[in-house]
Amino acid sequence: MLVVMEHGATDAQIARVAEVIREMGYQARPMPGAQRTTVGLVGNDGRVDGSQLEALDGVAEVIHVSKPYKQVSREWKPDDTLVTIAPGVTFGGPTIPIIAGPCSVESEEQIVLAARQVRDAGGAALRGGAFKPRSSPYSFQGLGREGLALLALARRETGLPIVTEALDEDGAHRVAEVADCIQIGARNMQNYSLLRTIGRLGKPVLLKRGMAATTTDLLMSAEYLLAEGNTQVILCERGIRSFDPATRNLFDLTAIPLVQKLSHLPMVADPSHGTGLRDKVIPMGRAAIAAGADGLLVEMHPNPEKAMSDGGQSLFPDQFARLVRETRAIAEAIGRSLAAPPGTAPSARG
Ligand code: PEP
Ligand code: MN
Question: pTM for the whole thing?
Fold first, then answer.
């Protein structure tokens, strides 16, 4: 439920509304707006009688949020949420950041070279997994803590912010020490205790859609993060299981405008896992930007043939540079632009 205050409501009136909400046994979330303040009521499981709140001084109206995901919905917050992971790298606004890098961090040489290639081509953030969720327990599981240290080194070398996955609750704290944005992978989208832990870490989060999750499931999972007080959440379409083995996943482009209509959170797209096929990544990356995606997450490796994971869907560096050039033209055609790598003038972009 949302309590909308009158234009010009006093601080004391807003504080009284929050106090009554707490007396009713719920939590109050005051949200100052450009025109007027709203006070969200959270912690309820079902409809709450708002008559007591409606009668308070300074209250304009009480709105019942009809969606099961409350704080994530546009009913709760009509205007787009901006998520900034580093100065100049903001998701959800007019500029579109592209996050790129290898599936896994493999060595100092590999990740620093990849970071330079990403930055030089015009990517705004570096991705790379230190803790990897692999289908087989015998596959490469990532370099762990050493991988995190190498990501921090790559950031020092290039200035690119780091997006990297946390696999479990222990690792989440370690990942938070290094990451500018914590990735929650498709397999963990419904790991509710991990969502709660990460929601409390106070870092931007990139939440990937589960491979068998509906868009409503994705929004419900995001609600766990917001319920812990973290509004810095980026959603990510990464393809869902389908009956057609021709691609690794079915890249659900419609999910982009669909989720953006239902939620104020930014929605990015991962055409690498979405297709699983290198030669499909550029066309579907272009399509995602045309569909209105607020960013891309792309796998690029200095030498994909030697990659320790997901080499077959990783772009070669020159292909990544082409993807950036082509998506920039598409972004500009729809009134947006690509975010420049931090520390570079827009005119010096690759
Ligand atoms: C990844 O980004 O490398 C990854 C494991 O993605 P997903 O969780 O979408 O499979
Ligand atoms: Mn991968």
Answer: 0.93
